[in-house]
Amino acid sequence: MPNWKEIDLQAKQWMKEAGEIIKSSLSRTLKIKTKSNPNDLVTEMDQAIEQFFIKNIKETYPGHRIIGEEGFGDKVTQLDGIVWLIDPIDGTVNFVHMQRNFAISIGIYEDGIGRIGLIYDVIRDELYHTIRGNGVFMNDLPLEQLDTVQVPEAIIGLNTTWVTKNTRINPAILGALVKDLRGTRSYGSAALEMASVAAGRLDGYITLRLAPWDFAAGKIMVEELGGYVTDLTGKSINLLGQNSVLVAKPGLYEEILKNYLNNGNW
Ligand code: IPD
Ligand code: CA
Ligand code: CA
User: Fold this and answer.
1) Is 43 in the pocket of ligand 1 (CB under 6 A)?
2) How far apart are CA 244 and CA 209, in angstroms?
3) Would the pTM count as exceeding 0.90?
């Protein structure tokens, strides 16, 4: 059986080292390129950090496979065995524009089941971490099980894209929810938005398009604390493809699905 405690300790050490590499780059001018569209940025640091993890993982755990956003990992089409899902910098637009509000996100799965989740807010030096079944921590602080909340008292992470004309959802659907909520926030890092749900600072998070490396770690954390992470129709998330994602505390999750998303009938 894999020694999850040992893997967790090792991964945390690499996280901290990667954080130092990122911090030391902040005073330099980085090469910035665009990927799928002008707002989809990648820097040499995104690539260097992914390669840093891949080199270390391959040397230490040669049998493990890796899915990395920047494409330096393996071609993974099935989730058997141990698979690391890595987003070297989640929130690259924030990294480039603000030099803060980004995170390294790593989820480690065994046969499709989340075992270890790590999200490192490099600038605040806040490391969210969980080993499935052992609770979730922010640095040394244990996070509490998530309380039930209802829509009028809830604040959720939501990008304004989804309440303007877009190709994925009728803006009126989420517009109705926005009117009834206490408020919305948009952090520009899916990993930090999910860590914020785990920490109880946000009550939920909704997006229409995320990749596995964006939510792999956050999903393990939120579920460990009794919250829900599914697609917007209430179905399980696909760890090998793009998904809509609904993250919410108990109560709020059921209310949003039933009263606003009509249980996926849209
Ligand atoms: C992005 C961020 C952003 C989310 C995008 C992601 P990246 O990740 O998480 O908040 O809205 O969908 O692609 O590109 O900065 O790693
Ligand atoms: Ca990302
Ligand atoms: Ca990224």
Assistant:
1) no
2) 5
3) yes
